[in-house]
Amino acid sequence: MSVREQDDPLLFNRVQEQNLLRQYDLLTNCIEIGLARGIEFFDQYTLWSLNAAAVANIAQFGGRYREEPIYVGNHIPPHFKEVPDLMDRCISLVHENWAGTNQSMVLPAYFLWRMNWIHPFVEGNGRTARAACYYLICMSYGDLLPGSKTVPERIREDRQPYYAALAAADKAWANGHYDLSELDAYLTSLVKAQLQEA
User: Fold this and answer.
1) d(Cα 159, Cα 2) in Å, to the nearest integer?
2) Contact 118, 90 (CB under 8 A)
3) Which band of pLDDT confidence, cut at 50, 70 and 90, is reported for residue 7?
4) Structural domains in the chain?
C-alpha cells in the first residue's frame, strides 16, 4: 500500500510529515542504544529501519537497498550491484576511524555525503542520510543534542547551502580528490545554532 503524491498531494504530505516524526522517535531510540553500547551498533540494520520509517506508506520497498538503476538530477549513482559493498565500506570507515573524533563533524559529514552519493535506497535517501548524520553528530557529542530545532530540520528549512556543500564534495571526488571542508563547516554551523538555541 502506498500513497502517490500526484493522486493526493495533501494526504501524501501529511503521511510524509508523520513519517518524519516516527523516524525521529526511532532515531532517538537508536542514538540512546548507540550511546550505551558504542559506535558498532551503527550498522546497515539501523539504516534500513530509519529508511523504512521515512518512507512508510509512500514507497513499496522501504528498508531495502535498491535493486535497480536510479538517477538524481545530473548525478548517476553507482550500479545497484555495488550498493551493498559500498555501504559496508562506508559504515566500516566510520567504525574504523571513530576513536578521537569527539565533537568533530568529519565523520558525520563524510557519511552524509557518501550516502547521498551512493543513493542506496529507492526512496528516502536524503531523509535517511540526514538522520544517520544526526545520529553520528549526537554520538560524537556524547548525548542527544539539546535544542528544539534539530540539524535535520534546519537542513530541510533551507536546502540550498546543503545542496551546495554536497555538490562541492561531489566535484572534488569527480576530480580525484577528497574534500568535505564545505560540508564540515556547514554542519558545524548548524550544530552551533542548535546548541545556542538550547
Assistant:
1) 26
2) yes
3) confident
4) 63-197 (1.10.3290.10)
